[in-house]
C-alpha cells in the first residue's frame, strides 16, 4: 500500500509539474507575441514620424513672404499647398524672396537685373536680355527684380517680356539714413543673395550690354570667395574697391542674413556709393577678380585709354555704360565706336 501511495504521489507531482511547465510556456508565448505586437507598432509609428519629418523638411525650405521691420525674410511660403501635394520623395532648395505668384523659375542659373519705373532703363534692360539670350548657351532664367512699392507698368512689361524676362517682385530694404536719397532703393539688390532656388546668379546693371557669351562668367571658379566682381576706377584712377555693376555669386540664406544684419548694425561705409559702398566694406579684400572683359567700365575708355586700347573691342563680353548711358549715346560723340555697338545691336 505504501508503494502504491508513493506511486500515486509521484503521478500527482508529475501532473503538477506538467501543468506548471505548460503554464510557463503559455506565459512565454504570450510575452513573445506581445513583444512582436509592440515592435510592429513601433515600426509603424517610426514610419509615420519619417513621413512627418519629410513634411517638415519641405516646409523648412519653402519660402515665406512676410517682412518684419523692413528686413527681408529668410524664406517665402507661397505655393506651399502645391508643394505638399507633390509625390516627389526628394527635396531641393526652393527659397527665394519673390512675392509675386507668377514667379516660376525654370533653371538653376539666373541672370538678374533691377529696375525702377524709368522707361529708359527698361529699354536698356530689354536689349541687355536679348544679348544674353543670343550669345549664351547655358540654360538660364532672365529675371527683372522690381520693388513691390514701385512696380513697373504694363507698358514696361510689354517691352521686357519679349526679351525673355520674368518678374520678381520684392519688398524694399530700408537704407541707412546717411545714404544718398536717389540711391536708397538700391539696397534691394541684397535680395539676390536670398535666391537659393538658383545655384548661380549673375547680376547685371541695366546699363550694361552683353555682346559675347557669358558662359565662362557663369561657370567661373570664384576660388572660395563670396562674390566675383572687377576692380573699379574713381577720380580717374584705379582703386582697391570693386564695381558692383556685374556680380557673380552663389546665393545663400546664411550670407543674406549676415548682409542684412550688418546693414542694420551701424556698419560705416561709403554712403555716397549706396549698396556698392556697403558691399565693398563687407567684402573688403574678399572678392574674386572676374576681369576687365566681363565688366568693361566706360570710365576706363575715358580715363585709362591706354589700358582700354590694349583689348580688342570685339573681345569684350560685357560693356558697362557708366559715363554715358547707352540710350543717350551718339555715334559721333566721344564714345562713338562703343555707342555704335549698342545702337546697332539687334536693331
From TrEMBL:
Record carries keyword Transport: no
Keywords: Membrane, Transferase, Transmembrane, Transmembrane helix
Molecular functions per Gene Ontology: glycosyltransferase activity
Signal peptide: none
A family per Pfam: Glyco_transf_8
Cited SUPFAM superfamilies: Nucleotide-diphospho-sugar transferases
InterPro entries noted in UniProt: Glyco_trans_8, GNT1/Glycosyltrans_8, Nucleotide-diphossugar_trans
Domain of life: Eukaryota
Tagged with keyword Transport: no
TM ranges: 21-44
Entries under PANTHER family matching the protein: GLYCOGENIN SUBFAMILY MEMBER
Protein name: Nucleotide-diphospho-sugar transferase
Species the sequence originates in: Fragilariopsis cylindrus CCMP1102
Amino acid at each position: 500500500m505504501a508503494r502504491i501511495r508513493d506511486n500515486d504521489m509521484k503521478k500527482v507531482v508529475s501532473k503538477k509539474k506538467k501543468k506548471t511547465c505548460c503554464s510557463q510556456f503559455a506565459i512565454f508565448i504570450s510575452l513573445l507575441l506581445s513583444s512582436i505586437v509592440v515592435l510592429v507598432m513601433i515600426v509603424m509609428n517610426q514610419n509615420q514620424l519619417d513621413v512627418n519629418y519629410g513634411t517638415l523638411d519641405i516646409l523648412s525650405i519653402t519660402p515665406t513672404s512676410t517682412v518684419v521691420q523692413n528686413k527681408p525674410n529668410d524664406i517665402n511660403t507661397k505655393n506651399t499647398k502645391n508643394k505638399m501635394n507633390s509625390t516627389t520623395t526628394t527635396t531641393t532648395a526652393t527659397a527665394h524672396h519673390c512675392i509675386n505668384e507668377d514667379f516660376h523659375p525654370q533653371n538653376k542659373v539666373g541672370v538678374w537685373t533691377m529696375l525702377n519705373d524709368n522707361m529708359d532703363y527698361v529699354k536698356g534692360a530689354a536689349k541687355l536680355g536679348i544679348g544674353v539670350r543670343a550669345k549664351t548657351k547655358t540654360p538660364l532664367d532672365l529675371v527683372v527684380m522690381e520693388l513691390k512699392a514701385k512696380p513697373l507698368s504694363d507698358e514696361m512689361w510689354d517691352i521686357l517680356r519679349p526679351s525673355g524676362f520674368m518678374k520678381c517682385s520684392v519688398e524694399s530694404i530700408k537704407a541707412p539714413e546717411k545714404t544718398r536719397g536717389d540711391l536708397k532703393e538700391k539696397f534691394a539688390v541684397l535680395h539676390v543673395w536670398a535666391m537659393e532656388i538658383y545655384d548661380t546668379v549673375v547680376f547685371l546693371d541695366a546699363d550694361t550690354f552683353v555682346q559675347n557669351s557669358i558662359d565662362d562668367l557663369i561657370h567661373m571658379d570664384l576660388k572660395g570667395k563670396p562674390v566675383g566682381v572687377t576692380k573699379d576706377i574713381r577720380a580717374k584712377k584705379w582703386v582697391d574697391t570693386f564695381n558692383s555693376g556685374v556680380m557673380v555669386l552663389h546665393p545663400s540664406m546664411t550670407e543674406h542674413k549676415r548682409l542684412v544684419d550688418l546693414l542694420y548694425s551701424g556698419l560705416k561705409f561709403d554712403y555716397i556709393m549706396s549698396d556698392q559702398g556697403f558691399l565693398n566694406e563687407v567684402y573688403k579684400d574678399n572678392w574674386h577678380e572676374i576681369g576687365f572683359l566681363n565688366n568693361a567700365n566706360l570710365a576706363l575708355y575715358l580715363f585709362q585709354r591706354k589700358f582700354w586700347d590694349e583689348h580688342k573691342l570685339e573681345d569684350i563680353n560685357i560693356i558697362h555704360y557708366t559715363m554715358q548711358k547707352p540710350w543717350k549715346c551718339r555715334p559721333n560723340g566721344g564714345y562713338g565706336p562703343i555707342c555704335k555697338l549698342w545702337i546697332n545691336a539687334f536693331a
